[in-house]
Amino acid sequence: MSSSIPHQRPDAPSFPCVDANESRAAKLATQANKLTFIKQNNQNQVKIEDVEGEGPEPVYATPTPATYQSFTSHYPLLLDYGGVLPNFDIAYETWGSLNQDKSNAILLHTGLSASSHAKSHPGNDTPGWWERFIGPGSDYAIDTEKFFVICTNVLGGCYGSTGPSSPHPEDSKPYGTRFPIITQFDMVRAQWRLIDSLGIHKLYASAGCSMGGMQSIAAAHLEPERVRSIISISGTARSGSTAVAMRFAQRSCLMSDPNWNRGFYYDGMPPHTGMKMARQIATITYRSGPEWEQRFSRKRRVTPLSDDEMATNVNNPGDAPKLCPDFLIETYLDHQGEQFCLKYDANSLIYVSKAMDLFDMTKPALMDIDQHRKRNENKVNKELLGSKTSHSMEPPSLDSVQVNNRKPYISTAPAVPYAQELTEGLTRLSKIPVLIIGVHSDILFPFDQQRELADSLRKGGDPERVKFFALDGPWGHDTFLIDTSNVGGAIRGFLI
Amino acid sequence: MSSSIPHQRPDAPSFPCVDANESRAAKLATQANKLTFIKQNNQNQVKIEDVEGEGPEPVYATPTPATYQSFTSHYPLLLDYGGVLPNFDIAYETWGSLNQDKSNAILLHTGLSASSHAKSHPGNDTPGWWERFIGPGSDYAIDTEKFFVICTNVLGGCYGSTGPSSPHPEDSKPYGTRFPIITQFDMVRAQWRLIDSLGIHKLYASAGCSMGGMQSIAAAHLEPERVRSIISISGTARSGSTAVAMRFAQRSCLMSDPNWNRGFYYDGMPPHTGMKMARQIATITYRSGPEWEQRFSRKRRVTPLSDDEMATNVNNPGDAPKLCPDFLIETYLDHQGEQFCLKYDANSLIYVSKAMDLFDMTKPALMDIDQHRKRNENKVNKELLGSKTSHSMEPPSLDSVQVNNRKPYISTAPAVPYAQELTEGLTRLSKIPVLIIGVHSDILFPFDQQRELADSLRKGGDPERVKFFALDGPWGHDTFLIDTSNVGGAIRGFLI
Predict the structure, then answer these.
(1) What is the ipTM, given to two decimal places?
(2) By its UniProt entry, which InterPro entries does this protein fall under (chains A, B) (predicted)?
(3) Which residue from A311, B309, B444, B469 could staple onto B305, CB 3.0 to 4.6 Å apart?
């Protein structure tokens, strides 16, 4: 224990976990440019001891050095709830080659906190978040000898795409919470601009896991003629109240950290403590369940016995319990929180997780969004007229054309049954083959939601076009990052 | 919005939820004696708007005015991990009358944060946490015309029993984190002292829900000859890693709140923000699941339309989303957090929840505790000899005699199979009738754990003595507070 810790009382126990928090704060306080914390590849990461207990540990977020490509749209983007981004960047990486008729592109949608770095490549050999799923040859879920894979950092993120940490066009200071509310559809609209710029008319597949499982559907909803097939893994057609609750608990921890400062922390101390708490909660929702019982069970951290103790007392009891991390599951969560708390932008977490909560493919929800858009349509033209930005030569995106032309849903007065609302919301996908994968041990996107999605899609078109795989992996929601054999196999078979 | 809020930027959205946190802090800062916050019956509670969405809302914690009775033990209590309390108080309340041969007493063990106030009575007409389960006549689960019901505030709690907020005998200042680590067995030892003082030799039943479901077993393990029957509702024989993770996330929020101050906040600002975060997480573990989907679904808070809006625009879209509580499930969690954050002592939450994590009835775990006790046995005598406290005339408790006489388990060298370890740990209960109730929708004490407890008990004695009820209520863990019909019915039938 450092003697500089102010509140340490001689008659009270020590709290190494609280000391660690204070050390992190002290270290950050001496750092000149705090905004760099998410730009640097973990250089600021506090070193902590390794987690005990073996198990598969996927790469969650990989803050990549700037080896991604960047697409800038100079046309304004009208967002679902009325915000407008006059221009925006999308960071992306690609693997494989686009074929001559540009018909082999797979757009890969990510989970909440992932970067565009799904797979290592010559420019960046860090393993990506789906490293073992993408590669050359038929051993991989997505064969890069056949397909051209595109992965983006989502709009709202912090790994190269425009988000709350990006400069506001008016004052070049970070947006902070001046950033507008975004939806899954908005994120996908931004991706469609990128696809347009690559000259790709139709995607071979719109594929994604977790939040990406929502986006794989949203992309096809916005542009049904431009998606040949959909892969939605551990996703949902609408977030349930328990998932909203779990993400709310995370946002609350962030927003009640005084360092969050209502979203304007970029020239001060970042809300590292709130981020750590949020990540601990998130980790529970990502894993938990059977694997933890097998891996951690009730094992506690033990101080190795000294030679003397070994020699004299074979029945030495285990260590007395401590209030700081003690059970291995606690050290694991603590480690996950420490790892993440300076790796990702707090505002990005707030905006992107909120966009997950808002996702709802039922017809009434889609109608509500359409009404919001209709109300704000004029903003885009105004913005264009009043804009001082010189525009690139890129054509108006197909999407911004569609804003005005989209046929609104016809209102149905009486309430329709629940599943029926979803089938009605998914009508634009009625002719697209879909692969859905669900995992029984998932507590964040419960299995019933993938089944509901499959059933609703089947009711709205040829049932044979919908393939539904139910997996029994013990890893919970994160199975999509780990189970190359089953998840990968299902994808490979579907893409043939 | 108040103009006194320092960080409000004119070009950024308002955050009423952050304002509320800051208002609470400002209010507490002006309050002279902050320790009173848990003694006063919610007088300091911040008023917030009512939660929308109907549903059964049990009384979780009832900080009662001092209408409970108090038992003081002047004999030292040796704790499992070596701590010693030279003396301690146990707050308790009773209902019904003790019969002549003192054979009709039911000791009711509570959940984590409950007080002794299980039921209203002439001294305190506030509804108790099990109000509808206890009362005169055969309509109630526990008939007070037949039984004498005793409910205590647990050791480590803050509603009248000795805990971290109680004065340390050396300096009369609150223990804070100088309070020793306690276990479920320690809490039960303290209860047995009370039972001794009431002259009760044998309990008609040791009954409890949630944490109390652990204690109902622990009480019989310590004193198998003194328990006629056991009722364990939504409990477990050992906490699983997911439950530990969920409680760890709560403790982390508390311990990383700077106001926690390593446990010494009693003359300063309490960690009200950490408490609110912790309670939000706890509420997810208490409820969630099917009832939330039915009750809150994806409903959002709506601003009522003005008359003008009503008249002019029937298709007015819903409100734009907000980052502060927005979905009804969010307002619900926010409300639960606000309600609780000044109602319960943060250190009590840390110590009592840790004691839940430590509960493990497998033989190796019990052996480990026995070794710890053996190591520390001499502390009690030392304490007695060195004590300046004048002792009351109460006899040495049966328990403190047993400390020295208990036959230690014989170590078995090779690892025994999992369930077998539990059966071996539960041998002292081999002749006691047991009622176990489990709820399928419980995510905190998963149903499989109640089944495991039932199976392990059945293997260790006459299987017929173990009754196991599986319930399908949609309320998750909290079903035991709500479902008078099924939970109550099963208890009533078992007690006949």
Answers:
(1) 0.86
(2) AB_hydrolase_1, AB_hydrolase_fold, HAT_MetX-like
(3) B309
